[in-house]
Each structure stands twice: as structure tokens, then as C-alpha cells.
Design brief:
Layout (H helix, E strand, L loop, with lengths): L14 H34 L5 H33 L14 H9 L19 H17 L1 H4 L3 H15 L1 H20 L8 E3 H17 L7 H17 L1 E3 L4 H14 L1 H19 L9 H22 L4 H14 L3
Parallel strand pairs: 1-2
Length: 335
């Protein structure tokens, strides 16, 4: 996307970022599998404590998505408005959609920007497509998990989910299968009937890197995008179901770093593309062209992380407050 701002450029200058950029889609697949794992774990844990129902689950998932999504949409609109006054790149329809603004805004706000296989991009923030997938998957999993509470017969809940999937289109339905691989990995990893096999932490990282390179980047199977994603998701699910041995002190540092970054990883994802587009379109020609690609890229990455951290404190870290306000609103309208 961003190389289009520079008229193509020399691919060799962007080889490192290009390589990692190709892996960005694989990172979304990792997130889908990991999300299924974590949501299944969190739902089981809260249910075991008692008094946890679909309403509580919905408030948890709603606040998780919308505490950041609303801020990300507003930030995108403001940054695109400012950028549009300063750079012609914002009028380039090959980079930013110029049509159906109201429809695109509504689709992103209602988290249906991925319905029927489309990715309804809002301005300079194409990354929001997977947020729509994620929120729908939250709802579908909740309907399945709490079907005995919601419906008089459990099979009705399954039927409702199947009908919803058929309405959403084959691609969103297919990727729900990838999301459910995370749920399956959680079930296997916490089952008393299945013997888990330990795996060294370094070996797990190596397996992830190799699978990512061969299946996604090199596409040794010669498969379409969906089949590549499924193959990679299977590897991820298998690795998540194993018992990881963290014997090296280095893994303690990795865990601490992951814990810190995980706090605002959603904010990084939701805010990074408008920041990068803004920086590239306004600063590349007068400033970044005089710098090495590595240095200018690090500037953009660092700026994106700092912006995301700021919005984490403004929005994502306040999801509990967001949940409470939503809960009070629902009670007032009698839901």
C-alpha cells in the first residue's frame, strides 16, 4: 500500500520491510487462533466462578472491541481530514477509497466491514477489516457457548449460528473455522484425557518462523490465500496445544516484554496504518528520502507505537469503565 505513495521505488530498498509486510497477514491468522484460545479460556474461567451468562459475556466482548474501535475510527477521520488538506495522496483512489463514505463509516462502526468477503476500508485504515471478523466471531462463539441459556433447545443455537454464517458469506464462515482452531487448541491443552507433549520454547519459535516462511511467504503448497491460512492455522493450533518448556532465562524476558506489549497490542493494530500513511504521504519526499529505509522505517514504527500507547491510556485501559457505562445503558432500556 505505502510503496504506491512513492511511485513503486526500488524494491531492494524496502526488502526488509517488504518481507515483514508480507507476514502481516499471517500475524492476523496467529491472532485469530490465539483469540479463540484466550476467549475460550476466559469464558470457561468466568463461568466456573458462577453467575456468568451471555449478557456478561457480551459486555466483556463489546467493551474489548469498542473501547478501541470508536477511538480508532475518530482518529482515522481526523488524521485523514488533516492529511487531505496537506497531501494529494489522500485523493488517490488506488490508496484511499473516495466513494460511499457514509456506507464505509457505518460498516466499520457496526463491525460488518468484512461481510460477504469484502474488506470495506475506511479511509487510511484498512487494518480494521479483521476487527469486524473478530467481533462477529465473539458473537457466534457466545451463541454456541451459552446456547442452553439463550434457547429452549440447544440445537436451535447451533442452527442460528449456521444460518448467520451462511448469511455472512463463505469467507467469513471459513475464517471462523480458523478462529475455532484456537478453541480446539485450548480444549486439548486443558483436557485430562489427552496426554500433552512438551516442546522446547526455542523449538516452538523456530517452528513458527519456518511455517510462516514456507506456508505463507514462499507458499510451497501453491495454494490460494484461504488454504495457506488454514495450513498455517493448523500449525499454530498444534503448537498452542503443546506444553512449552521455558528453561532459558531469556524466555522470562520475552514473557515480560510480551506482557507489556500485549497490554496495548490492539491499539497498535487499530492505529498504526493511519499513522504510517500520514507519515509517508507528508514526510517521505521532503525528509524520509534523505534517510536510509531502515531508519525512516524505524521512525514510523516508533511513532505508531507511541501513538498506540497514548490511545491505550485514553481508551483501551478504560474498557472496564466502558463496560460499566454500557451495562447501565442496557439496564435503563430494559435489556
Amino acid at each position: 500500500m505505502y510503496l504506491g505513495l512513492f511511485g513503486g521505488g526500488d524494491p531492494a530498498q524496502w526488502s526488509a520491510f517488504g518481507y515483514f509486510g508480507v507476514h502481516a497477514h499471517a500475524a492476523v491468522i496467529v491472532f485469530f487462533v490465539l483469540s479463540g484460545y484466550v476467549v475460550a479460556y476466559a469464558t470457561d474461567r468466568k463461568t466456573s466462578l458462577g453467575n456468568y451468562d451471555f449478557r456478561g459475556y457480551f459486555l466483556d466482548r463489546w467493551s474489548r472491541i469498542y473501547s478501541v474501535l470508536i477511538a480508532a475510527v475518530c482518529f482515522t477521520l481526523v488524521l485523514d481530514y488533516v492529511g487531505g488538506m496537506l497531501s494529494p495522496a489522500y485523493q488517490n483512489s488506488a490508496l484511499i477509497p473516495q466513494d460511499n463514505f457514509v456506507f464505509r463509516l457505518a460498516a466499520n462502526l457496526f463491525s460488518i466491514q468484512g461481510i460477504w468477503g469484502y474488506r470495506i476500508q475506511l479511509g487510511s485504515n484498512p487494518a480494521l477489516w479483521s476487527v469486524g471478523y473478530e467481533f462477529i466471531y465473539y458473537l457466534l462463539f457466545g451463541l454456541l457457548y451459552f446456547r442452553a441459556q439463550i434457547f429452549s433447545r440447544s440445537w436451535v443455537g447451533v442452527l442460528v449460528v449456521l444460518l448467520l454464517l451462511s448469511f455472512m458469506g463463505w469467507k467469513m464462515a471459513a475464517y471462523f473455522g480458523i478462529w475455532l482452531m484456537g478453541v480446539a487448541a485450548y480444549r486439548v491443552s486443558h483436557s485430562q484425557l489427552i496426554q500433552r507433549h512438551p516442546i522446547n520454547g526455542w523449538l516452538m519459535i523456530a517452528a513458527l518462523v519456518v511455517a510462516n516462511h514456507l506456508l505463507v511467504y514462499s507458499n510451497i503448497l501453491g495454494a490460494s490465500e484461504v488454504f495457506r491460512d488454514f495450513a498455517f492455522a493448523v500449525v499454530m493450533a498444534v503448537l498452542f496445544s503443546l506444553e512449552v518448556k521455558q528453561t532459558a532465562p531469556f524466555f522470562l524476558l520475552i514473557r515480560q516484554f510480551n506482557t507489556y506489549m500485549a497490554d496495548f497490542s490492539y491499539s497498535i493494530y487499530a492505529f498504526h496504518t493511519p499513522v504510517i500513511f500520514f507519515g509517508c504521504s507528508l514526510l517521505f519526499v521532503p525528509w524520509f528520502s534523505m534517510l536510509s529505509s531502515l531508519f525512516s522505517g524505524l521512525i514510523l514504527v516508533t511513532t505508531s507505537i507511541l501513538v498506540a500507547r497514548g490511545f491505550f491510556h485514553l481508551a483501551e485501559s478504560r474498557r472496564t469503565t466502558f463496560r460499566r457505562i454500557t451495562d447501565q445503558f442496557m439496564r435503563r432500556i430494559g435489556t
